[in-house]
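Reviewers of the previous submission asked for a worked example of the structure-prediction workflow described in the proposal, so we include one complete record here. The input consisted solely of the amino acid sequence. No template or homolog information was supplied to the procedure at any stage.
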Amino acid sequence: MGGRNSALLAESICDWWLLAGVDSLVGEQPAGWLVAPPANDAAARPKRLDPVEADPPPLPAVLQRQEAPVPVDPAGPIAFPDDWTEFQDWLATGSDVPGSQWDARRIAPAGEPGAPLMLLTAWPEIDDQQEGVLFSGAAGQLLDAMLRAIGMARADCYVASLAVTRPAGGRCDGEEAAGLDRLLWHHLRLARPGRLLLIGGDIVRMAAATSLVDARGKLLEINQDGGKVDAVAVAHPAMLLARPAQKAAAWDSLKLFNRGR
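From that input alone, the workflow returned the following structure tokens.
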């Protein structure tokens, strides 16, 4: 009875080992089943497959290397027409006219070269661009009265603005001002006025290199092509309407034109 039980127990143990995957009683190499492999034994650790490196995603276009642009020689200064008729046409339609970039509505000069008096302002007023003529509305009526006081009429004058459109806020500087400065002296050379009335502080600063306050009541001499043109400076008629107290200073300047007559 005891032998039979021992046989059954031995058979049960063998079945258990078979289920555990042991198919031989003795291996080719001795193994220490109770000895744990060292922690730093690389052979004992399971091998890890090195990850396969994928191609990196392309950089955004703005970060990609780009060839430097080929430098372009800067354009030279604008060539202003020397013929009077061509110059007037260019002011009216030319795409490269300094001071034409601020508005689509241009105000062209009026009058002929060699006029006894040139009326020059920096740029049109807002009302001028609406009406299409310089010194429009009440400001124009006041200017006509000022001219009559010195024995002149607007029809006898050459009337122009340095810029044919008005800049935003009525101010300009930098390269825009530099372009207008070149245009100023070219315009005066072609217009050949007998005398010059500078109207408004901006054109006084550009043409006479002084402020309107310092120019009041003085006969200015504007150098032009080796010669000199007598000039006086007054506030813009629109300013005189807003500040009537300044009319006396404008009259003191205008009276200088009557000296020696």
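The chain is about 35% helix and 10% strand. We consider this example representative of the routine output the project will generate in years two and three.
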